[in-house]
Amino acid sequence: MTDMPAAEPLEALPLTPSRERAFRDVFVQVMTRVLNLALGIVVTALVVRTLGDSGYGQWMTILTTFQLVGFFTSLGLEQVAVREAAADPRHAEDWVGALVVTRLALTLPVMVVGLGALTLISQGHTMFIAGIILLVEFPFGVGSSLAVVHQLRVHNTLPMIVLTLNSVLWGACVLVIYLSGGGLVALALSMTLVTTATAMMQAFAAFKLLRFRLRPSRAAIIRLLRVGAPLGVAGLLVNAYARVDQIIVFEKAGSQAAGYYGAVYRVLEQAHFIPISVLTTLAPIITTLYVTDRARMLRIVTLAAEFLAIGALGALAFASVAAEPLMRLFFGEEFVPAAPALPILGGAFVFICYGYLTGNLLLVLGLAHRQIIVGIAGLVVNVIGNLILVPKYGFLAAAWMTLATEVVVVGTGGYFVVKELGGLRMVSVGRLPRVVAAAAVLLVVLLALDAMGGGLVVLALASALLYPALLLGLRAVAPQELKVLLLKRPEQPAEAV
Questions:
Q1: FRET pair for 132, CA 20 to 30 Å: which of 264, 418, 424, 485?
Q2: Which residue has the higher pLDDT, 376 or 91?
Q3: How far from 478 is each of 435, 445, 474, CA to CA, in Å?
Q4: Which residues contact 14 (CB under 8 A, 6 or more apart)?
Q5: Residue ranges in 293-340 assigned as alpha helix (H)
Q6: Cα–chain-centroid distance for residue 215?
Q7: Looking at residues 351-370, what average pLDDT do you find?
Q8: How far apart are CA 236 and CA 345, in angstroms?
Q9: How far apart are CA 330 and CA 263, in angstroms?
Q10: What are residue 431's phi and psi, to 5 degrees?
Q11: Residues 374 and 234: beta-carbon distance below 8 Å
Q12: Among the listed residues 284, 301, 292, 311, the one whose alpha carbon sits nearest the alpha carbon of residue 21
């Protein structure tokens, strides 16, 4: 191991924080990501208006392709690094160093593959140039991955600041491009510059907390690759079935349909802040407790499931009623035909949230190789369904296939998790029935308001006021938990989790 002193003793890593700290960390992330979501939707609307439906279809196709290819630079290694460092905090700097070195080594070959993919999908000189510019940011993705250092300390405030700064800078650039009449190339250049700058900020902040070395032990690199290999293959399959539908729509239904689908799918992607926020905080805790106290681990898993249901089911109820005015507000009148896909993808989002949870549990339980089976099942269902249905039914078929795919993925992954834990008797539903009841009542009220002519503002206000009241009234959320989020109280012992 290294003789270089860390910024603070590694034993200080709070891998079993109090319940209050966990709640507060999730709350900070959710609120920050909500603000970023609002800004992101506005920025997306400006991008759509800048490029038009066909140009936006090209933009989303480039981004989707690079997100798929770019997965080869990470292969899910961040999850493995968090798992290993959480279980072995004294050697955290070695695991983080192994993560950095491995990701850097993967970048160059991935950029070559990305260039080949860009050549195949490009429709014109402008699209190709924009893609070349976006390729430049690949090596700097390593900096963003160093948010794992803050995740290990269950203190994710600074990554949220960096995320917000990235959103603000990107939004300012898009506004300037919109006002000046820029296009694909200008957007690509701005995104590359902003992403690179904020990634470097994240890397600097991580190094101040944990002075990892760029010559990690060989054992750490081998372990990272050995555990990460099946996870990487599984992650590649997940990215494939999550992204390939956009490309199929582009090829089989045209750029306009791809623009419609890309716009509504962008809303879905922005909503991923809910499972990301919950599991960024709870995943390291689950990992640690799996080694030390499995009964407490199961309680934390139930808590995560409750949090996920609160966010996902509330969003589904709202999207089911407000889809058309939301699309009109976000993207303009020409994108209103995409509205019917929003509640369908809202249903898929419920399963996506639990896909995050089952994926993390498979890793913690040492079943990363099972994720390959999960990914293959999802990819087969998605590709076959889209190839059959999209040519006839367009982008709406792609939305339904996303829902069907996520049902298969969560069902398959959940089966492996429950089996490993010892059967359904080990699984507690906790307050999930109460969350479902609150969301159902919210849906009924929103439908009634919509039938009476209530617009988007009325629906939004009703959701913001009624849903928390329902959650409290049905005791899906306890009042003392809200006090934890709103008041800064002394930390309780770790056993309170």
A1: 264
A2: 376
A3: 12, 23, 9
A4: 21, 153, 154, 155
A5: 294-331
A6: 30
A7: 87
A8: 21
A9: 9
A10: -100, 15
A11: yes
A12: 284
Q: Which two tokens stand for residue 298?
A: 């199961």
Q: How many helices (H) and strands (E) does the chain have?
A: 18, 0
Residue 290 · residue 363 · CB < 8 Å: no
Tell me how far apart the alpha carbons of residues 13 and 189 are, in angstroms, rounded to a whole number: 38
- Asked which of 166-170, 208-212, 419-423, 461-465 is least confident by mean pLDDT, the reply is 208-212
What confidence tier does 410 reach under pLDDT thresholds 50, 70, 90? Answer: very high
CB neighbourhood size of 411 (10 A): 14
Q: How far is CA 200 from CA 168, 194, 280, 335, in A?
A: 16, 10, 21, 36
pLDDT-derived band at 443, boundaries 50, 70, 90 = very high
Q: What count of residues does the chain have? A: 497
CA distance 336 to 260: 9
CB-based burial of residue 480 (10 Å sphere; 0-12 exposed, 13-18 middle, 19+ buried)?
Answer: exposed
DSSP 90: G
Q: What is the pLDDT of residues 65-119, one digit of tens each?
A: 887 777 777 766 777 777 777 666 777 777 777 887 888 888 888 888 888 988 8
Residue with tokens 């040492």: 366
Structure tokens at 199: 């990634």
Q: Backbone phi, then psi, for 332, in 5-degree steps? A: 100, 170
Closest CA to 433 of 476, 482, 466: 476
What sign does the dihedral 169-170-171-172 (CA atoms) show? positive
Contact 281, 26 (CB under 8 A): yes
Asked if 160 and 281 touch (Cβ cutoff 8 Å), the reply is: no
Kindly tell me if the per-residue pLDDT of 344 is higher than 90.
yes
Token readout for 14 is 């709070």
Other beta carbons within 10 angstroms of residue 355's beta carbon come to: 25
Give the number of other CB atoms < 10 A from CB of residue 462. Answer: 19
Gap between the Cα atoms of 439 and 465, Å rounded: 13
Confidence of residue 24 (pLDDT cuts 50, 70, 90): low
Rounded Cα–Cα distance for residues 473 and 435 (Å): 11
Q: In whole angstroms, how far apart are CA 47 and each of 7, 140, 182, 447? A: 42, 24, 10, 31
